[in-house]
Amino acid sequence: MIIKNLTVRFGTFTAVDDVTLEIPAGAIVGLVGESGSGKSTLARAVTGLVPYTGGIVGGDPRRIQMVFQDPYASLDPRMTVGTSVAEGLQGLRLPRAARQAEVERLLSLVSLPASLAGRYPRELSGGQRQRVAIARALGARPELLVADEITSALDVSVQGAVLNLVRSLREELGLSMLFISHNLAVVRYVSDVVAVMHQGRLVEIGPTEEVVGSPTDDYTRSLLEAIPRLGRT
Amino acid sequence: MRRLPRTPAGIAGIVLVTLMVILAIIGPPIWGAGAERIDSTVILQGASAAHPLGTDNLGRDILARVLVAGRLSLTLALLATLIGAAAGVVLGALPSVLPRRAARLVTGTVNALVAFPGLLLAMFTAVVTGLGARGAVLGIGVAIAPGFARLTQTLAASVAGADYVSAARMLGVSRRRIMTSHVLPNIAEPLILNLTQALGGALLGLAGMSFLGLGVQPPSFDWGRLLFDGLGRIYVTPAVALGPAVAVAFAGIGFNLLGDALAHAASRPAVTAGKDVPRAVPGSVEPGLDEPEPDAVLEVRDLTVTFPGGVTPVRGLSLSIAPGEIVGLVGESGSGKSLTALAIGGLVPHPGRVNAGRLRLCGTDLGELPEQERRRLLGTSLAMVFQDPMSSLNPALKVGGQLAEVATVHQGASRTEARTRAVDRLEHVHIPEPDRRARQHPHELSGGMRQRAVIAMGLMGTPRLIIADEPTTALDVTVQRQILRLLREVTDETGAATLFISHDIAVVGELCHRVVVMYAGRVVEELPVGELASGAAHPYTRALIASLPDMDTDRSLPLASIPGRQPSPAEVGGGCAFADRCELATDRCAERPPLIPYGKAHLVACWEAS
Ligand SMILES: Nc1ncnc2c1ncn2[C@@H]1O[C@H](COP(=O)(O)OP(=O)(O)O)[C@@H](O)[C@H]1O
Ligand code: SF4
Ligand SMILES: [Mg+2]
């Protein structure tokens, strides 16, 4: 799937400026940048939540799903986990029993017990909620999954588990992903390709080790410089 | 629905409404015959023992009629409210499912109707649909509807912006289904609350209609009708009009109070209380930790913060910081870091209670100081920086003026002196063009610059202690870097003690000299920063470090992660709080491990650490 010359304008302000980005099948493309650099706007454009110019080629734009940053806001508090996950199965028109089996399968994909289906989001931890949101998105059989800062609102102790899940989904399902984060260390850990965004534009794209190991852009270098490291004083 | 608050108003509301409902049920069967009994010998009498509220022009007992009229009055009010609410909710929900242009038309109509006086709308409808109970009910219903429509629209708009609605849209859920399965269920509660209050209003409105002769017509009667009949005689026999008036007032007030109480109950978050209430045991200071430290700027021993209901977010925490030292306090959210900071600054919100074996700042015991002096000491020697700089800045005032105020209030400086110092301090924290920035309002500054301004505010005096609670969490990495550097610079040059709070162990590892790890309200490990990367001894600290990807993490291996979650402040039991997430846990961990020395300048609370 290729995002081609995508531009988003809000009035006179250009939030995303002529972005072209290829997401190879089965690859995780990481997108880093500071807050306000246009990462989330790009994500919302790609998933059709904000109008844009430009296009998406090489795939069905309707089969792009997104997982949001805040797991406390992305699940309807009045819906059970099972009902929320089943929302992703809308298009399949499954009979009741098959739908329930599919919900269980999706929950097990994200390593949640089937018994959670009857629970409400308030009974779940942040990490569990984020898994539910991922399961819901997977139900729609996406060609591309956009993950917008999905670990930023999580505690460090559960962030690791969610990152492991992201990688295992890629390995087991061959899922393509646009993985957005302001944390370069997190992006480096999960991505095959890293794209760096600055003031609405992509300033550098390349294989992860190259971008992280020998950045060519000044802005990328300053981002790398700024990352806090344990034991560096 | 959650429990109702036991406020006098809430209780009065419940009592009044219950009485009204009972009256509506038992009124007609008991007093029905009396209310209809015509007695030509006692026509138009005032209050007497036989007829406490007097009699009407056919000699019927007015008290009995008031008691009987309750059922009709309440039923009509209920009908009118339901009609109004149903119409209102439909009108309010329509714009979310209609095409753009039709939606705008509906919204415009609702807005126009909301601006129109309710009683006029009611009278107009009643006159058009015909005098009598039906017209009055429809009229009041029509008068109530626009308010409900507006409320539904506002509530629906806020739900429609929620991420879960975006997610549903993305999944191809239809607009109508989004309305019925996401929006309506989530706005039902406030709508129902509003219904209760609207009921009170409808009751008064209907009484008004009957009173104007537009409502219930004889031989039926409701309170409004009785009032209408009695009013002509109010100067001669006031009781005949007072009876129905009081009934209407009580019912109206009752429903309004109940609605208020329900609304309050709904907006209160439910606090889950633990079963066993753990107490701060006096003298539970761990051995080896109880000698006073004369050099320390801050010395905290056995600090406990409690909220009612057995919620104890900070449990016997001890901590000391030397001059020029930066101590990092890490732990996941809810571990009690912020409350520790607030307790030191004397800022724990009501009804929290702070207990400390010792709380000394610059050698002075804060617990023993009179309130006035404690404030003065904290005001001059403590600088606090929070995650959101706007919690320390007044959006209405210019930055320079706010800084200067610190100097005029606490240091008795003159206005020009204070002003000069403010600009000097802004320059000191590397704000470019400090003179111009001082004349700007906080919103004109970027997030990083506001945080600098807050630090500059702390530097107006000579801080002995700097507490920074997640000061860089909302900032970008590059800006975070600059703020961390500034904090170190400021600590070095003022010789202040700095407590740096963060959930991010990497940030703490980069900035601090010593690291204190908190879990479920307790310190579980304290160690020099050099040992953090490879010398941590507590399983929690180790897992935190292992689960954090950094730029050198091996990408071919899965990250470590910690199963389960931290117990809430009400759930913490008697044993090691980490036990049900810990790989090394044994039977012994049912008893809480003490925080004991583990090598040089290193403390750990774990049975398996030695
Ligand atoms: N006003 C309050 N009333 C009751 N509980 C509170 C209050 N403030 C904080 N808490 C609880 O205390 C615990 C610790 O909070 P906090 O100190 O903010 O943790 P941290 O800063 O480590 O995230 C949390 O579980 C929180 O719910
Ligand atoms: S005391 Fe026991 S449960 Fe607690 S951290 Fe140590 S080994 Fe684990
Ligand atoms: Mg906090």
Automatic annotation (TrEMBL), chain A:
GO biological process: transmembrane transport
Record's keyword annotation contains Nucleotide-binding: yes
Membrane-spanning residues: none
Pfam families associated with the record: ABC_tran
Keywords, ordered alphabetically: ATP-binding, Nucleotide-binding, Transport
Top-level division of the source organism's lineage: Bacteria
Domain ABC transporter: 1-224
GO molecular function, one term: ATP hydrolysis activity
Signal peptide (residue range): none
Homology family: Belongs to the ABC transporter superfamily.
UniProt-recorded name of the protein: ABC transporter
UniProtKB/TrEMBL annotation, chain B:
Principal location: membrane
Subcellular locations according to the entry: Cell membrane; Membrane
CC terms in the record's Gene Ontology section: plasma membrane
Transmembrane segments: 12-31, 76-98, 110-131, 191-214, 234-258
Record keywords, A-Z: ATP-binding, Cell membrane, Membrane, Nucleotide-binding, Transmembrane, Transmembrane helix, Transport
Topology with respect to the bilayer: Multi-pass membrane protein; Peripheral membrane protein
GO-annotated biological processes: peptide transport; transmembrane transport
InterPro entries: AAA+_ATPase (IPR003593), ABC_Ni/Peptide_Import (IPR050388), ABC_transporter-like_ATP-bd (IPR003439), ABC_transporter-like_CS (IPR017871), MetI-like (IPR000515), MetI-like_sf (IPR035906), Oligopep_ABC_C (IPR013563), P-loop_NTPase (IPR027417)
Similarity comment text for this entry: Belongs to the ABC transporter superfamily. Belongs to the binding-protein-dependent transport system permease family.
PANTHER family noted in UniProt: DIPEPTIDE TRANSPORT ATP-BINDING PROTEIN DPPD, OLIGOPEPTIDE TRANSPORT ATP-BINDING PROTEIN APPD
Protein name: Oligopeptide/dipeptide ABC transporter, ATP-binding protein, C-terminal domain-containing protein
UniProt organism field: Streptosporangium subroseum
